[in-house]
Design brief:
heterodimer, A: mainly beta, seven-stranded mixed sheet, four-stranded antiparallel sheet, B: mainly beta, six-stranded mixed sheet
Chain lengths: 111, 113
């Protein structure tokens, strides 16, 4: 059974640009969650999508957005990048609450 | 709001020794509790979870955790540590109906030969 796939794995952007990250969940999982991981703030919840609807949202500015497609694949977008957006962005899919299966993450560096 | 505290940032144990990683949570109702492990450059892997019932839960890789409501704790244990257990360990809490999980800051485990 294939795991959660995130693309790209690494990317470098400059301030002011925007970025789109992609996540393919495990087959049959309808929930996709996104987390930001940084050394200073740790793991922080961004948002969760379930059946193409945003079910929960963390405390991040509106520059962070996401969506989910009918095949459960999800994308997240960060506009007007800031230096502080440099982080590992983790996607997780699940069938049940809490049983999150994480991808290996997309490491974003903002210069 | 729920929160999780992992008091130990870094722990070093000798291979073969026992291990206990501490986790304290704050939540008004009975929480859903989890332990995840993250190896360098990898995503997180679920070790075990507690929803209800027996307060001692068994997980993968020989790990277990005990839920103690009176102490608001969910400590992770392993009787004998292997070098491959070196990683970062995260305790997390969630409510019953969503995946807005709150993670602790993590405990980095180093295993000495």
């Amino acid at each position: 059974k294939a795991g959660v796939t995130q693309t790209p794995r690494y990317l470098i952007k400059t301030r002011g640009q925007q970025v789109t990250l992609s996540c393919s969940p495990i087959s049959g999982h309808r929930s996709v969650s996104w987390y930001q991981q940084t050394p200073g703030q740790g793991l922080q919840f961004l948002f969760e999508y379930f059946s193409e609807t945003q079910r929960n949202k963390g405390n991040f500015p509106g520059r962070f957005s996401g969506r989910q497609f009918s095949n459960s694949r999800s994308e997240m977008n960060v506009s007007t990048l800031e230096l502080g957006d440099s982080a590992l962005y983790l996607c997780a899919s699940s069938r049940e609450v809490g049983e999150l299966f994480f991808g290996e993450g997309s490491r974003l560096t903002v210069l | 709001a729920q929160s999780v505290t992992q008091p130990d940032i870094h722990i070093t144990v000798s291979e073969g020794a026992s291990l206990e990683l501490r986790c304290n949570y704050s939540y008004g109702a009975t929480p859903y509790l989890f332990w995840y492990v993250q190896s360098p450059g990898q995503g997180l892997q679920l070790l075990l979870k507690y929803f209800s019932g027996d307060t001692l839960v068994q997980g993968i890789k020989g790990f277990e955790a005990e839920f103690k409501r009176s102490q608001s704790s969910f400590n992770l244990r392993k009787p004998s540590v292997h070098w491959s257990d070196a990683a970062e360990y995260f305790c997390a809490v969630a409510t019953y109906n969503n995946n807005d999980m709150r993670f602790g800051a993590g405990t980095r485990l180093t295993v000495k030969p």
